[in-house]
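COURSE: Structural Biology Practicum
ASSIGNMENT: Worksheet 4, Part C
STUDENT ID: 0417
INSTRUCTIONS: Below are two proteins. For each, the amino acid sequence is given first, followed by its structure token string. Answer the questions at the end about the second protein only.

PROTEIN I
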Amino acid sequence: MTDEADVTNDIKLRFGRPDDFAALRSLRGEVFCDELGIQERSYHDVIFDWYSKNVVLLAGNRLIGAVRLAYIRDWQEYYVSYLCLAAQYRRKAHLRLLFGAIILLMKRNGIRSIRADSSDANLMMYQAMGCVPIGGKFKKPGFVCDWTPMRYDIGVNAAAEESLSERAAAHFEPWTESDLTWVFDTVFHRCDTASAFGATFETLLEKDLIPGHLPYLARPDRVIDLPHDEAFTRHLRTVEVRSDDDEFFSATSTASPTRPACPDRTTITASSRFAHLNARFSSKTLVAVLVDSEALVLARLYAVLTCKRLVELNDWGELPSLCPPSVSSVTAIIGPADRALSTAVLSAAQRRCAIGLLTAADLPALSSTLLGSYLNFIGPTQVAIAVRPVGLVSYEAPTGACGGGLGPGLWSLAGGPEMTVVAIGPYHLLIVPARICRAAVAAISEFLKVGYAIGQSVRLVREECLGDEPILLMGDPSLRLDIAPSEKNVEATRRLAAVSN
């Protein structure tokens, strides 16, 4: 890389758009597969460009460099990846422009720290930019090289950061406020029946439009049936699509986002695309659903969004067999008409890995619950802990974690006046015996503070402190939840999780 002091006038920065995604994938392939030979061609990118901030470097109209700032949902941390330049444009001045753009995004969004992984070849470059190693070398699925985890903290060199961000701003094409802030355009496709949802899901998947386009199952008697609460929409500017006539109309947006083209309505019956993707998803985090469940297609969408491998079970009795030591968590998606999951089966599974349940009183509520459980965590989300007594009335109250009600199939696990519900944000509930509630919440909070995922925290507390006392986790178990400052001091809130799950 030559040390060129200036940048030619045709070099510009721009925030990436959906129509840049193909060119971005092509540039990454050229650099990481063809030139460096460190990425396998079969690698499936587990970070969605749609819900990331891509900065592209242009020479005229040609894309010559890029960097991506993403938010890793399970980690709840910002992460920089795919910093690359085409070979003939590999200059320090161009690299500084891309790094300056990341500084701009950090400052605008109040980001204190970002994570990155460096190959051995680029380690000195990352360190020269102020990044520090935070762990030993490791292997990454889909890559053949060793990686070193890195971290950059804003303010390490305030003067240099100011210079880099000002220089980057001078080379940016005009931007909008939403380009800089952590919000994203999303097209929702309304489906009035489960069969329509399945057909729409297959169409969007085949056309590679997920997650920018998302199907949801609506109640036929309502024109709009998406949650409008902040937990669901805080990171979105929403455009809704009527699946019957493809008519666009605004659902929750206060802005006017660019409306992506709506796909045609060709019905696709085969699931070859899903099977292909599912085989590439990590087998360390799983989604489980009954093979004959009416929630099967909803579970497939959730698996695609979260990049968890879907396993279809003939019976819930097979759940413990999914939990060898290599599996860290299982999210069980339970349809409202599914056969009951027994206490004995759940206890056996919990002894092996972290288990979380996602369910609802009906399919439209379950569709909303699954979308909320994903979209609520595509950006920073602090959650508060609230404890309240529980009975039948409490479960019927609308809540993201159980979609307006548990349904009869779970009462054998959670029902009874002696149980207490602990709400951890809008999409997680703990259901515990009242007599051990205080001890359980205190112990789980301590594990969350040091960076354990919620499911692993529940599992460890159950094993180490509570023996065979039942603790039921409603919600995705793989998430590291950031407890609000009232529950956790600010310094600990900003601390990077140092505990591997």
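PROTEIN II
(use this one for the questions)
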Amino acid sequence: MRWIEIAQRNEVNVEGTVSTAPIITSVIKEEIPYVEYSLDNQKLRLHYSFKVNDVVRVDFSKQKVFINEQLQMETIDLVYADFFKLKPGLNEISTIPAMQLEVKYTERWL
């Protein structure tokens, strides 16, 4: 099987005045060797034998990765291990492969 990387951008608008760590959930739509979430120059890459309908949840505040509700910290790439925060305003989260995201966060004000 040949796998082609296709990225997708997901826009998140943070109305608060302070950066905030998201919880991102996504459902895998095809068998793939890794997923990647990036914001600006920060990347989080997870290596795993993903199957169709696997659910990936990343808690950027606690720096934890769950796959199908099981803690999977060993999947984190050592080079691309940035648990980023959303900044106030428009944020474009890119994913490889292209996937829909559910992004939860708490608006923070200072």
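ANSWER KEY EXCERPT:
Q1: The mean pLDDT is 94.
Q2: The first strand starts at residue 8 and ends at 14.
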